Amino acid sequence: MVDKKPSQGLDPTLAQDMQGPVCPVPLQHEDQVVLGHGSGGKLTQKLIARYFYPPFDNPYLMQGDDSAVMDWPHGGRLAFSTDSHIVSPLFFPGGDIGRLAVSGTVNDLLMVGAHPLWLTAGFLLEEGLPLSIVERVAASMQAAANEAGVQIVAGDTKVVQRGKADGLFVNTSGVGVVPEGRDISGRRAQPGDAVLLSGSLGDHGIAVLAARGELDFEAQVVSDVAPLNDLVDAMHGVGADLHVLRDPTRGGLATTLNEIAHQSDVGIEIDETSLPVNPAVEAACEMLGFDPLYVANEGKLVAIAPEAQADRLLEAMRATQHGQAACRIGRVTTEPAGRVLMRTALGARRVVDVLSSELLPRIC
Amino acid sequence: MKYVTEYRDAQKVGLVLDDIRATVTEPWVLMEICGGQTHAIVRHGIDQLLPPEIELVHGPGCPVCVTPLELIDKALAIAAMPDVIFTSYGDMLRVPGSGQDLFSVRARGADVRIVYSPLDAVKIAQQNPDKQVVFFAIGFETTAPANAMSVIQAKAFGLTNYSILVSHVRVPPAMHAILGSPQNRVQGFLAAGHVCAVMGYWEYPPIAEQYGVPIVVTGFEPLDIVLGIRDTVRLLEAGQVKVENAYARAVTLEGNRPGQAVIDRVFASCDRKWRGVGVIPQSGWCLRPEFADFDAENRFQVAHIQPEESPLCIAGQILQGLKRPGDCPAFGNQCTPEHPLGATMVSSEGACAAYYQYGRFADALPEHGAGNPSVSEQLVE
To answer: pTM of the entire structure?
Structure first.
């Protein structure tokens, strides 16, 4: 027996009668930190804009790029960046927290056109952590530093009580020098520029998720974590006027492109069919309800440069180890400023938004 | 992935769209039942490619969206109790109850874990005999077999520390509610392929006949969806009231009989409140008396939690296809996926979230658009 009349929980005329926004303010998560504040998406951006930008406000910080670039009193320009690394598990296919910590900061320096020179390393160790793990992580950091041509020249160690940290956290800071005449920034994307991507999307995020084991799925995916010196050096080598470089880490490509569109006040249009995704990553995303556009990468970059130089750049990128699958994924447009659009495989267009909070697996 | 990619082939989709254009002669309003279909439609832009005569309205098939407020408040209360491990599908964590969500409860120290299957929750219960493990058993017919199986397993293992908080809903009573409404505009249904994979579609011919609407079982990939639309439009244009299956690679008339048997062993029909809609008689499933021990509402003292829903979110009317997301003045400004006001903005299957994520600000907000901050403005507000 079924009641044919639906219960009306609401007065159907209500919404029509409302003049402008009248809804009560929803959950703001403004009283405490939630994990979404660390997602790299909108909550992270709001946290920084509200709590960190106002007290620290200065022109270098407000550049909003992966590294701050400062005039050095003795000539030239200095790039400076820092990055804290937490990852569970500490070791995963393709890398570990040490390789991640070195690559993250080196890549942030590379993304402003700097030549990375020196790193510092800060370790937070949890009581009970086997020292063999410390040894392995340190060895991995040095191997990555060798690959990137940097030295780890200072460090710090703190130990916290068991249960107060997840094994091992690593912070790295790094400095590098920006050669004369180079101006690479998220503010320099110009209508007509080509948008290039150095390789496949989502490998790191899915590799770590699979290695975590708690979701009971296995995937033959290897993290892409790597310092990208070879790739970036090759790109500088062709003498192109690189406008923007950025590594699409937390929040994925979608979030990175939105940041650039916002910083440069331009539109960015990407083609769905051009986006490279490894079949295993695509399958894992299908199963988990993730979009590879929002999954983290740790060894990829987005480059924006004049269209006339795009082919030369792509050729140079593809000749390097970390840019073999480089491709053109879209273009910079005038409108709609601050937005990223996607031309879908079917030929429709839609907005590609910033990751809002944590990536959540969906119900079915 | 090959099996999926074939169903995203732009050329094949284009041919079916041509077919639809050639078939349609008058305006038709179709409802896709399932939120997964809504998202696929907006994500791939299928609605932009349809002839203007065809209007798609979005159905109530988002299990996260229709879970009533009091169940969410009960979940929050149970999760906050000491020695409880609260397990849930991921997208339930962001649904606001009265004042907080599972993220906030977790941030205050509750042990809230995302699982992919209730059978994982049973494993957690086995591994943590000193804790009470609760699974938030929401969903349509699709998730019911696994949720039921978790109870059967827990009973077989003799577990006394596993229970489920049940909020199961069923599609056919919701279709009756929509079609029986005096405000109904729906002339044809795309039935939810995943639900039909479990239940078959033997329940639908009486509905089609009673209300004179064709129903076509439809899948989730672009080609599946345009095929479902084409078949529905063909039936409408021919004046035929029939139930057809455009998702034969996954769905049979009788469905998954063992799955249905498992559901029937554990659950019985009951009245169920749908968030924003109200109580629809016999529209849910509850645990049978012999499994009452596994009912989290019995195990924990939460019966007194009966909050009132904010009367302002129009999710209920969106879920019934009476309104579109843009008809809500809060859409895109106060109500966004990171600060959802209603459940339809929360789930990856919710219609408001689909509109927001895939950028329907312009056409969603004809009257209120002036006050709608752009995405970039929201970033720096």
So the answer is: 0.82
